[in-house]
Amino acid sequence: MAQLSFSGGKTGGRLLVVSNRGACTLRQTPGGLEIIPAVSGLVSAVEPILRREGGIWVAWGGRCGQEPGHLLPLPEGESKYLFAEVVLSSEEIKGFYDGFSNSIMWPLCHGFLEKVQFEENYWQLYRRVNEKFARTVVKMSSHNDRVWVHDYHLTLLPALIRRQRPVLSISFFWHVPFPPVELFATLPWAGEILRGLLACDQIGFHTESYVRNFLQAVEEILRARVDYLNSTIHWGGRKIRVIAAPIGIDWREYLTLAAREEIKGKAEQIRLALQSDYVLLGVDRLDYTKGIPQRLQAFSHLLTNYPWLRGKVALLQVVVPSRVETAAYQSLRQEIEKLVGEINGLFTTDYQVPVRYLYRSLTRQELVGHYLAADLALVTPLRDGLNLVAKEYVASKARGTGGLLLSPFAGAALQLKGALLANPYHPREMAEQIKRGLEMPLPEQQQRLSSMMRIIREQDLEWWWQQVKGMSNNAEQPEVAAND
Ligand code: G6P
Q1: Which residue is catalytic, options 175, 206, 301, 370?
Q2: What is the mean pLDDT of residues 260-272?
Q3: Does 21 sit in the ligand 1 pocket, CB within 6 Å?
Q4: Where is the signal peptide (predicted)?
Q5: Fewer CB within 10 Å: C terminus or N terminus of the chain?
Q6: By C-alpha distance, which of 115, 376, 364, 104 is closest to 258?
């Protein structure tokens, strides 16, 4: 196994992706290094691009220690790109990851100000880890490489790299919502974060409203000159382009998986096991932004107010474990499990259990089997940058029937106009829309699926890559996001 000793290639021009979480988590076991695939929208979008383009992915591999990181060819056995592991100490994991990233940036960007813990110590460690990432990037890059930084964990990185690599092309993609300036300005370090980001050449967001929030933030907090018409910022003698480009998916992969006999068979098995006429599905990372308790309450409202549905409808809720060290996530898990128990205690009829709850991650094949088993997917976050589950579900169902209930607070709602909408904070509205989705005639389901599929095909992963790699001009920005 190679240690991190690679120095930038002589020819350059390579793609260097930098994010906190890479394509996999590494675990040192007595039998050797275990490579566990990571699950997130960021990974689903970026990994296929690196596989095709080649290059280097600099990321934390989830390991705690002081030793140098591994340099691994990935995927295993295929060697399409190099994974340059950054190792964090336990103090850094606490302050940078659990602290500043997950207990300040994450709740702030999603509008949960009451959950933000403004700790100076977290900030110090955030800076320290950004510097650590910067050292690795500088070591691995040469002047004509393209650096592509991702997400709220690494906002200081562009400026730290720029100091040592003044002509390097640096772009950034922000995967979560960018909050309104009134909210962002509560962050004591808002100015430093914006200055860090403005060392990029281009910054991408999922929607026009996040772009607008960002432009307002740099104008009001930094007093930077902003050209709203062309979506550019003039700062430090440079021009920074800001674009809206919602991530797309590789829809062909989902269509192909959905057509496989064994996956269709799995879907049948799931339906049989649920003993229900109707299957509702939720698939979410364990997170308070996803609205899982609110969804369970809406389901309870449905069974209370439409008693003839008892024994006929099941909610299959998959919760993928996440951020297990953070108190807010531990208490959320307890809250969900308590609600599941209460609903099942009240509404189990003739041993048909209304909520089936899985606390684990699924492989992509299993995921498609679950999508196929559902009559209606409930993608009802309280706030979500985009949400790829909604797109994956539609692509898996495109050749059949099925409904999608979406929260208007997910970025994907701007693109997927064929979905039913419901306010996740309003249990009655949610229950009524679930009922409407279950009663929807099959031709209407098909027509809505194909209208959503059209946009998923048009704005797929390749389209997204063309937007974010900086080849497109402002006139090519997505129409759907421009309506926001
Ligand atoms: C979101 C973020 C990603 C993050 C993922 C999983 O999708 O945008 O940057 O990697 O959640 O969270 P985790 O804390 O496990 O990396």
Answers
A1: 175
A2: 98
A3: yes
A4: none
A5: N
A6: 364
